[in-house]
Amino acid sequence: MERIRVLSVFGTRPEAVKMAPVVKALAADPAFDARICVTAQHREMLDQVLSLFGISPDYDLDIMQAGQGLSDITCRVLKGLEPVIREFRPEMVLVHGDTTTTFSAALAAYYQGARVGHVEAGLRSFDKFSPFPEEMNRCLTGRLADLHFSPTAQNVQNLLNEGVDSAGILKTGNTVIDALLSVVRPDYVFDVPELQDIDYDHKKVILLTAHRRENLGEPMHAIFGAVREIVDRYPEVELIFPMHKNPAVREIAAAHFEGCDRIHRIEPLDYEPFAHLMAKSWLILTDSGGIQEEAPALGKPVLVLRRETERPEAVDAGTVKLAGVEKETIISMCEALLTIPEAYQAMANAVNPYGDGMASQRIVERIKKTLRPEMNAN
To answer: Which residues form the UDP-N-acetylglucosamine 2-epimerase domain (predicted)?
Structure first.
């Protein structure tokens, strides 16, 4: 029987992390002729994850250019994938999440008549400009997809509400849990000097990440101002901020964080040390999407520095709270967790809604069942 040709396409670090367990599961199953195409929308950060998980792409579009815009990325992915799809003739192109690579790859597959599988499908903020451009990347990819692999029941319901045929939807859990559980280990030692001297056992270490386009300017000033005030008020707090490469983020950080030896501004971390930093932290403040899924699996409360989230399940479960971008609100919510043990434990002990670490296997079995029903995959 001819093997099932599947092409997995991704281009950024978060995509690579979440697709790594899927491509590993495909490679381990003899039913598949599975190949990998990276767009390298984010070159350096992508390569770090490929090395960590031992992934060697079959195709590398290497599209990253200095100062690239969204239309540049879209056009280069479309044109770059065209000969790849024509040469390999995949029966399904797998994409992940909400990046410009995701939408462009799904569109390229559609143009070539290949079916599309969307991993992490059905997340919605219901505001097309926030997160931007991720919200519309997800929605547009959803219109092109044939199989929708949704992490949660709410994601499934979002797709049903949009008229997607239930036969093409599978609730899987989130593949990031598969990846995280495969990486974190108790004997890990940081090789970053700034992280080696912190007393994680006796200090309340807060991990901060902030980089979203919509938070640049006054919102980020409010966020960093709140964080500085919390560190100044509470001597037991140490703050670690892996800084995004964006110069605008770094300038605002310098304006607020200079002169405080308990605020550690460090360079961006590879996935493995970052996962362990999450595991060792006491509290996480973030405007990221993926961290809202990962941190609860490690028992870490998360305050989201955004006005809305496309991951409401974590809010409903109590592992995540929306802190917004107002200075006083952020301070108030941090103080509650710092001073009220019951409030902290309620978040830390809440059940993670994002799965059991078996999402990748469910995805692989569903592809097999759909494309080779005669194999009677279970």
So the answer is: 24-368
